[in-house]
TrEMBL record:
The protein's name: Uncharacterized protein
Record's keyword terms, sorted: Membrane, Transmembrane, Transmembrane helix
PANTHER family xrefs: GUSTATORY RECEPTOR, PROTEIN, PUTATIVE-RELATED
Lineage: Eukaryota, Viridiplantae, Streptophyta, Embryophyta, Tracheophyta
Signal sequence segment: none
Protein's organism: Helianthus annuus
Entry superkingdom: Eukaryota
């Protein structure tokens, strides 16, 4: 009589109740108590059926948890591979970093841990629940360097978010221990050996609390560390600028010199690098290794490791078989995720760590430098923001604040000293081995090396002056410094192989900067009451449109022009983005980007095909005049729609049409002085020359852009910015070398960034 909805059972109760009311013989056989018992049984059956329905989606939730865990593992592996690929063995966090998205995904992976109501009686169920805690330990250790990659406000928000999650987990684990959801010995005939899960839960909880304390302690240190690094960076930057005045070398060599030195500053002064090599990070890695041992013990005792026991596994939790998937996935995550934190411990060997060169300060682990507690001291000395009317209450609040912060300062010093001790113990054995190797190498050099053999592997002494570090007593190892220098040379060399040959061919057609002056003319009657300024990219795109529209030009020549302009515009937009920052230039750049996208992909100018059939058979002047009339028509329509009022943010159509009108009118005015009509091939060559001249003038700003990219003001973005500068230098080396042979006007550097200033200078220079 069972049914999914339970109604047939209640119908039987109704029938029995009716018979009980009218049949005396029936009343003698069945009492009211029996009917009530039957009714209660029906209710219990309904509850069971409903609970089974509620259990159905739990399997999909388990799959969701396993998938979320898999994505976390992928991110950690990506950071590991990124570190190996770039030879950054402190493994900076690029893909798996602390932010709102990662906290959300981590919360999903902890679903089993925070589930206080679901029964999980079997070994695999309990192991999956506690294995999530081990996975959390691993993720926290991996997230340590990412704390240094964000600004102070973001750091505060993310650490608070992670702390809330961790504290919620700890409270839930304590509740489950009290309610025996986490049982001590859940032996069900499948586990290979007994496992006290309560003790495992306590160990994991203690590890997570320690890691959270270390993360909070590190967060308090990061702002002060960044201030020290920034101060040293600015001081070194000023010295570098002063030294640059006395260096005489080619522009390319000078740029290489700059990029290398700024790269050394960016790498050694990287907040993530400093974070990864400090004692707190080492301590978190050692603690993470302990959680790995506990997880491996869970895996060893699991029935999943035995083919015979695997057949006896019973999935009694609502998550069913997904608990095995979660346990296996997160156990793999613990093993793989522990690699990066452990290897970060050895990043301290990026410094010269030979005992003979150490002083006693390295062994004074109880000495806590000022920057570890600087932020707490600032909070202690800062006044209370809210005002209290009562002096007694105000004094009470101030005293409470000072007492709490004094305790926090003492606690912070204790944490730092403890982590320094762990750090010292962790590196002692490797340090002794390195010292022995150092002495053996010295003896070998003394006995077998000729006395006057020259050393060819010494690092440039000047580069060492650009190393930024908080602890001045630890000198960066020569091998590490060489690696940093080689890495930036690799970026430059790799970029040099991506030279833009089509663009270089186009630049060969430039005979100077005459095209900058003649692409526009002051004699053209303006269509707008206030004319737009000129940008570098917009006239280039407009001239290209005219060149493409010319008939009877060899297809190969047109394709080469397309490729050349496409390659050149990438650098032109970079120059504009870096040097033309005013809003009017930003509008022009966006308009030229959109216009070029339309030309390159659809071969259209403002939705008008550039290969129009109407152009066939027309003369060069007729084609130019058609573009001029069409552009004038578009501008006039837009003016009429706005009643002639000045538009604050002109549309792409208005900007493109006005540019086309002025350029075509300039060509028509200059063609009037020609004795013979200009042919299409002549005009095509003339347009190529003007485009090449504008590119050449624009590219004189590339060295300045590279220098600006080297000197990034935001410390978190500095490393990536210098890398962009290195790649730009590599790609434009031949362009810069070519321009170095040209007679560049002796203009002010700020004025060279604007095409209108070039036109004004060139027009004034005409005798």
């Amino acid at each position: 009589m069972k049914s999914h909805d339970g109604y047939p059972c209640f119908r039987i109760v109704d029938l029995v109740s009716t018979l009980h009311s009218f049949e005396k013989e029936f009343r003698r056989a069945i009492s009211l108590h029996d009917i009530n018992q039957l009714y209660n049984s029906c209710q219990m059956e309904g509850v069971t059926v409903n609970s089974e329905k509620f259990r159905e989606p739990m399997v999909w939730i388990g799959v969701y948890v396993a998938v979320a865990s898999f994505f976390c593992i992928l991110a950690m592996v990506a950071d590991l591979l990124h570190g190996f690929q770039n030879k950054k063995f402190w493994f900076p966090c690029k893909y798996f970093s602390l932010n709102a998205a990662s906290i959300t995904v981590i919360t999903v992976t902890m679903k089993l841990t925070v589930d206080v109501s679901g029964e999980m009686p079997s070994y695999v169920d309990q192991a999956a629940k506690l294995g999530s805690l081990g996975f959390m330990c691993t993720m926290m250790a991996n997230l340590m360097p990412s704390l240094a990659s964000m600004d102070n406000k973001t750091l505060l928000a993310n650490v608070i978010g992670l702390s809330i999650l961790v504290l919620t987990m700890i409270v839930n684990v304590c509740i489950q221990l009290n309610t025996r959801v986490i049982d001590r010995y859940p032996y069900d005939g499948t586990n290979i050996s007994y496992m006290d899960f309560a003790i495992v839960a306590y160990i994991y909880t203690a590890i997570i609390i320690l890691l959270l304390i270390i993360m909070i302690s590190s967060s308090l240190t990061i702002p002060a560390s960044k201030e020290i690094l920034e101060s040293k960076y600015q001081a070194t930057h000023k010295i570098h600028l002063a030294n640059q005045r006395h260096i005489r070398m080619s522009i390319v060599e000078k740029l290489r010199h700059n990029v290398t030195r700024y790269w050394v500053m960016a790498e050694t002064g990287s907040p993530q690098f400093v974070m990864a090599i400090n004692p707190l990070s080492t301590a978190s890695a050692i603690i993470c290794a302990l959680s790995l041992l506990v997880t491996l013990n869970l895996v060893r005792a699991s029935p999943l490791t035995s083919s015979w026991h695997r057949r006896l596994i019973r999935y009694e939790s609502p998550y069913e078989w997904t608990t095995s998937a979660i346990f296996i996935t997160q156990s793999i995550g613990v093993v793989v995720g522990t690699i990066a934190p452990i290897l970060r411990c050895f990043s301290v060997f990026n410094y010269k760590l030979v005992i003979t060169k150490w002083n006693r300060n390295h062994f004074m682990f109880f000495k806590v430098e000022k920057y570890w507690t600087q932020k707490l001291h600032e909070w202690k000395q800062s006044p209370i923001l809210f005002l209290l009317s009562s002096p007694r209450l105000r004094n009470l609040v101030c005293n409470a604040k000072n007492t709490i912060l004094s305790f926090c300062i003492g606690f912070q010093k204790g944490i730092v000293a403890s982590c320094k001790l762990i750090w010292l113990i962790a590196i002692t054995i490797p340090l002794l081995a390195i010292t022995c190797f150092y002495h053996l190498k010295s003896l070998k050099a003394r006995w077998f090396t000729p006395p006057n053999s020259p050393r060819t592997d010494d690092i440039d002494i000047d580069v060492r002056n650009y190393v930024l570090q908080i602890d001045v007593e630890m000198e960066l190892a020569e091998k590490t410094l060489k690696g940093i220098s080689k890495s930036i040379n690799f970026f430059i060399s790799k970029a040099e192989m991506e030279q833009n040959n089509n663009l270089l061919e186009l630049l060969e057609k430039s005979t100077g900067f005459k095209g900058v002056e003649i692409f526009d003319s002051d004699h053209v009657q303006p269509l707008l009451c206030v004319e737009h300024v000129n940008s570098w990219s917009l006239p280039i795109v407009t001239l290209t449109c005219i060149a493409v529209a010319l008939r009877d030009i060899h297809k190969h020549a047109v394709q080469n022009l397309f490729k050349s302009v496409g390659e050149g515009l990438s650098y032109t937009h970079l120059v504009e983005e870096s040097l033309n920052c005013a809003s009017e230039y930003v509008i022009l750049r966006k308009a030229s980007v959109g216009l070029w996208h339309e030309v390159e992909n659809n071969c259209r100018w403002l939705d008008i095909p550039l290969a129009k059939k109407e152009f066939k058979g027309k003369t060069t002047i007729e084609i130019i005049k058609w573009f001029s009339d069409k552009a004038k028509e578009i501008v006039t329509e837009i003016k009429e729609s706005t009643n002639g009022e000045l538009v604050e943010n002109p549309s792409k159509t208005l900007i493109a049409a006005n540019s086309m009108y002025r350029i075509t009118q300039t060509i028509l005015l200059r063609s009037q002085s020609n004795k013979e009509p200009i042919t299409k091939k002549q005009l095509f060559a003339h347009l190529n020359g003007m485009i090449a001249d504008i590119f050449s003038a624009c590219f004189t700003n590339i060295p300045r852009v590279i220098t600006m990219r080297c000197h990034e003001s935001v410390i978190e973005k500095r490393e990536e910015s210098v890398k962009v500068a290195a790649k730009l230098l590599g790609k434009t080396t031949k362009i810069i070398e070519r321009l170095e042979t040209c007679e560049v006007p002796s203009m002010d550097a700020d004025k060279m960034a604007y095409v209108d200033e070039w036109r004004l200078y060139l027009m004034q220079s005409i005798p």
